[in-house]
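User: Sequence in, structure out. Go.
Assistant: Echoing your sequence, followed by the structure tokens.
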Amino acid sequence: MASQTQGIQQLLAAEKRAAEKVAEARKRKARRLKQAKEEAQDEIEKYRQERERQFKEFENKHMGSKEDVAARIEADTRIKIDEMQKAVNLHKEVVIVKVLELVYDIKPELHKNYRATLK
């Protein structure tokens, strides 16, 4: 009987050591997964920053900075407004004269749809 009890004790001790090894292996696996996840996040962040830098270089190369674009639009707008103002000043007198002629030269006549009923 003593040998059976001793055998059972050995089995229980072996089972306990196996459970500890399994638990330790799970902890190592969890640490490795966490470390791999952190490394992947770092790599993703570095890649994102690199692509952002490349995009900004591309944008500056092909479109210029936002201030440059705004300045170009402002300059174009000023040029167009100046051109319109010159056109207005050039044609203003002629238009005023024509409008006044139309207002002052009234020619009374019957409308073409008016029917003469006095016959």
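User: And one key feature?
Assistant: The mean pLDDT is 89.
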